[in-house]
Amino acid sequence: MADFLLELRCEEIPARMQAGARAELEKLFRRELEAAGVAVGTLSVWSTPRRLALIARGLPLATEAVSEEAKGPPEGAPDAAIDGFCKKAGVTRDQLELRDVKGRMTYFAVVNIPGRPMAEVLAAAIPAIIRDFSWPKSMRWGAASITTDSLRWVRPLSGIVALLDGAVVECEVGGIAAGRTTFGHRFHASGPVTIDSADDYIAKLREAFVIVNHEERQDIIREGAAAAAAAEGLTLIADEGLVIENAGLTEWPVPLLGRFDEAYLDVPPEVIQLTARVNQKYFVCEGEGGKLANAFVCTANIEPNDPAVVVDGNRKVLAARLSDARFFWEQDQKTPLAVHAEKLSRITFHEKLGTVAARCDRVGRLLGQMLAPSFEALENFVEPSVGLAHLAKADLVTEMVGEFPELQGTMGAYYIAQEGAPVSIVEAISGQYSPRGQSDGVPVGETAYLLALADKIEMLTSFFAIDERPTGSKDPFALRRASLGIIRIVVERKLRTNIHRWIYLSLNNLVMQAMDNIIGYYEHDLQGVHDASSELTFDTDAMRINYKGLVLEVPPSLKPSLLIASNFEDVDRQGRLTEEIFEFLIDRLKVQQREAGVPHDLIDAVFALGGEDDLVRLLARVHALQAFVTTEDGTNLLAGYKRAANILKKEGFTGAAAQPDPQVLASLKADNEGIPDTGEEDPLALVDDPDVGDILAAEARGNAALSYTPEEAEKALIDALDAAAPRAAAAVEGERFADAMAALATLRAPIDRFFEEVTVNDPQADKRAARLALLARFRDAVHRVADFSRIEG
Predict the structure, then answer these.
(1) 572 vs 578: CA distance, rounded Å
(2) Which residues does 367 contact at the CB level (< 8 Å), separation at least 6?
(3) What gap in Å lies between CA 385 and CA 365, rounded to an integer?
(4) Strand, coil or helix: what is 680?
(5) 310 vs 257: CA distance, rounded Å
(6) CB-based contact 7:51 (threshold 8 Å)
(7) For a pLDDT cut of 90, what percent of the chain falls above it?
(8) pLDDT tens across 288-339, in order?
(9) Which pLDDT belongs to residue 660?
């Protein structure tokens, strides 16, 4: 067995591309060796800013000889067909073999492929890997770059190390020959570094001040930065993304702590952190009480003789950045947020949905519909709901958010707080985008979480309205994230509400806004008729509208409104789309709950009962059902339910249980004397009487006095249902779902005994019908809690 080392050296690889490059190198290496019939054993892939490295251990010294055969045309086929087969198989005619295939002689090509030395396999694989390598961005260089078929790489490729058990694998790519020479740190190491084998690669580069293993560099940065902060009595603000990025920027990382002017702490801490992180790749620290300290940790790529010199240089660069941030902070506050909001009408949100200001109108209208009972709380500060929605998005036009888009919402909250706004308004603007991810909490105050909810519902419904939906792995407008945000806010804030209504209202706001825009623009032409919407028809191709024969040209500014209005000419579409959006939300709920350990079939079992769009109640019922079905009682009751349901399904017994008709039962008994006992559990499988369905339906209407004396097990089930069914129904009505499950659990033993001791397939028709009705009562009692037919297992 042999060990193989491959190093591809080039100029600095962007840190953000290194993880993908490692995965690509491994994928292509495995592809090439598996194509040669070589199983890849232990494989390690690393990266630094200037190199990709791969070590494969346990490779065979040579590939095994194999024999491949291909079936060709039959004997007597046209010469062209036979020659084409020979060419494809790489053989001559005299090498073909004739074999009998189902009585007809057929040509076969047998190709014996001898084993190859592993060095030969790798010599062919390395150029293929390099040429097929996929980078997000790549370049050509040198004289060869004048042709489109020249080598492409993320940065100019400068060296290849390829060693198999210490021997150089002879190959060449783009004029670069493989060898055993590499280079160490750009500043700490001078001259080439000669690698003897895969075993000394890491050690020799470490001597040359290069730590090849990116995970080791990450550990050094993570632990070193925390230690540097702790040495000053500070706490490092953890930032794993920044750790990975710094490891991708350095080959010999050295964390160093520095200080910046305390005066900059007047700027919001989020601004300072983003300025340090985004522009300079620095960590920041907290002092006592969790307040941001005037300290940063940079990661040098050298072991400095005088760390203070390096820190001072980084401090000066950071100071310049913080000075810019403070300028933006001060400039933005010179203009009230409400005045900033006026500029939103100049920003296009989406070509089919109009401006950001138009979207704010829709969000605000929906927020007002949600807030209605406590609307007065907003009136003392801004125009209710719509004004708040505009204020919430106003920071999009500020200098600070223009520099740091990540701060949208955050800066608006700071600016409105500086103007003396109530805490509820500040919280609402700050939390409007929450939750931004799984680790982010939902807004707390009523105004805050309802604004966030209105914002997400409007986003979801608007893009569905213009048919911009997520497809497969593509979700350019983050509608799945918006849906999960809606679910989390509703569930975590325990909002007992009708989701259908909110979706419908949001769609209606969109359509009404479009119609208002059109009618308002043409008010003079439409002679002040405000209900003209029912008389309008639309021509989106010609950009025209028609009102009672009056054809009007539509200006570009009204195009979004025209498109929306035309999409909803079919008045039923709004209702259908509401259902589609709600189903999309439920699908997201299933995904979320599956990740939390709740099987999707349990959600289906509750949701299938219909009429349930209260997510809080739905999940409470689902969690109670999950706890129940994992118990012995639940498992056995599920088995009994499925047995009963199968019998009833065969009989077409789908209605609710109810009162039988004694006269009809008597008639059935008289008409069906002498029906043989078939041994079927389905007693009516051989009966084709048109009255049967009516009789069973009548029997299904209740639990009237029986025309016979029930058996003990039958009577026990009747008594158990009489007690359990109303208890379960009352518990469901009171949302005491655990109590409902407990009531169902009392049916486990009676239904088991019923199936063991009672013959459903009784020769007497009245007994059969009554027992079917009893099973229907059992099924319907269970259905008050959940549709057990949807539960797998």
Answers:
(1) 10
(2) 385, 386, 388, 389, 450, 451, 454
(3) 7
(4) coil
(5) 10
(6) yes
(7) 53
(8) 888 999 999 999 999 999 999 999 999 999 999 999 999 999 999 999 999 9
(9) 39
Read off the pLDDT of residues 194-251 as tens digits, 9 standing for 90 and up: 999 999 999 999 999 999 999 999 999 999 999 999 999 999 999 999 999 999 999 9
Beta strands 176-179 and 157-164: pairing type?
parallel
Residue 480 CB neighbour total at 10 angstroms: 15
3-state SS assignment for residue 496: coil
What are the backbone angles phi and psi of residue 437, rounded to the nearest 5°? -165, 180
- Token pair 């829709």 is found at 362
* CB-CB contact of 189 with 168 (8 Å): no
- The whole-angstrom distance between residue 782's C-alpha and the CA centroid of its chain comes to 34
pLDDT, tens digit, 9 for 90 and up, residues 174-201: 899 999 999 999 999 989 999 999 999 9
Q: Residue 405 class from Cβ within 10 Å (0-12 exposed, 13-18 middle, 19+ buried)?
A: exposed
Q: What is the pLDDT of residues 426-439, one digit of tens each?
A: 999 999 999 988 88
- pLDDT value of residue 531: 55
Distance, in Å, from the CA atom of 626 to the CA atom of 629, rounded to the nearest integer, reads 6
CA 409/CA 425 separation, integer angstroms: 12
Measured at the CA of 697, the angle between CA 696 and CA 700, to 5 degrees, comes to 85
Question: Starting from the edge strand earliest in sequence, which strands make up the sheet with 536-539, in order?
Answer: 536-539, 544-547, 550-553
- Structure confidence at residue 678 as a pLDDT band (50, 70, 90): very low
Q: Please state the separation of Cα 780 from the chain's center in Å.
A: 37
| pLDDT for residue 669 is more than 80 | no
Residue 585 tokens, joined: 């939300």
At 708, the amino acid letter reads Y
Residues 134-153: pLDDT tens digits?
999 999 998 888 888 889 99
Residues 572, 578, 584: CA angle, nearest 5 degrees? 140
pTM over 0.85: no
Rg (CA), the chain: 37
- Alpha carbons 585 and 605: distance in angstroms, whole number: 17
| DSSP summary character for residue 736 | -
Of the candidates 235, 244, 325, the one whose C-alpha atom is nearest the C-alpha of residue 279 is: 325
Find tokens 């209900």 and name the residue: 531
Residue 496 near residue 570, CB atoms below 8 Å: no
Using DSSP, state whether 658 is helix, strand or coil. strand
Contact 629, 602 (CB under 8 A): yes
Q: For the chain, how far is it from start to end, CA to CA, in angstroms?
A: 49
With b for 16 or more beta-carbon neighbours within 10 A and e for fewer, the 337-375 pattern comes to beebbeebeeeebbebbbbbbbbbbbbbbbbbbbbeeee
| Residue whose structure tokens are 């913080």 | 322
Residues 6+ apart with CB under 8 A from 393: 341, 344, 356, 359, 360, 412
Ramachandran region, residue 37 (left: φ > 0; alpha: ψ -120 to 50; beta: rest) = left
